[in-house]
Amino acid sequence: MFFEPRTGHSLPHDPFRAIVAPRPIGWISSVSADGVVNLAPYSFFNAIAGNPPMVMFASEGIKDSITNVQASGEFVVNLATKALADRMNETSRAHPANVNEFEAAGLTMVESRMISAPRVAETPAALECKVTQILPLKDLNGDAGERVMAIAEVVGVHIDEAYLTEGLFDMVKAGTIARCGYWDYQLTTELFNMPRPDLPNH
Fold it and tell me: Where does the Flavin reductase like domain start and stop, copy by copy (predicted)?
């Protein structure tokens, strides 16, 4: 089959998110201009550079996270895992702006070292980030609607050393999860190694 997204499809649900999957989950913690902490998952999230490390997340709608990040210029990416999946999902609720999702989901806040936004104590890894750009996401007509992308440099990395195996971060041990299509998620249970053929095997 073939369809043009603007004119629709004949399937029960839009397959786009299932095709572009799995996607890492940007579990973003931030602080509002009034000091209210927010924690929310974003499925349009990824690493976009390695030196220096940089990440992005995009918001469809002007939600609390993007409003906070626009005001503060910083956020934390908390690793979403199978053990934390239910509580991560709880933070996706459309709470009023004055609700602290850490408290609503029964999670522990820990101070960051480089920024003011707290991180999730229970996660195996977290990235402290400072914003470099906030961009409207325009379509072919030049209309951004309420689509906004925040790009940030990672200025601090937290790793629970229990999840290091021979000096490598162990995604299987951590139980890293990813967002797929529809309401589906994926658990990292197995990895395979395949070095680039033109580089030494490290």
Answer: 18-171
| Alpha-carbon gap, residue 39 to 102, rounded angstroms | 7
Secondary structure element (H or E) that encloses residue 183, with its range: none
CA dist., res. 158 & res. 32, Å (int): 23
- Mean pLDDT in residue range 126-151: 97
- Residue 65 host element (H or E): helix 64-72
Q: Find out whether the peptide bond into 5 is cis, omega within 30 degrees of 0.
A: no
Q: How far apart are CA 38 and CA 197, in angstroms?
A: 44
The full set of domains in the chain, from first to last, is: 16-187 (2.30.110.10)
Secondary structure element (H or E) that encloses residue 31, with its range: strand 26-31
Q: pTM for the whole thing?
A: 0.95
Is the per-residue pLDDT at 21 higher than 80? yes
SS3 88: helix
Percentage of residues of the chain with pLDDT beyond 90: 93
**What is d(CA 115, CA 30) in angstroms, rounded to the nearest whole number?**
10
189: its two tokens: 């249970």
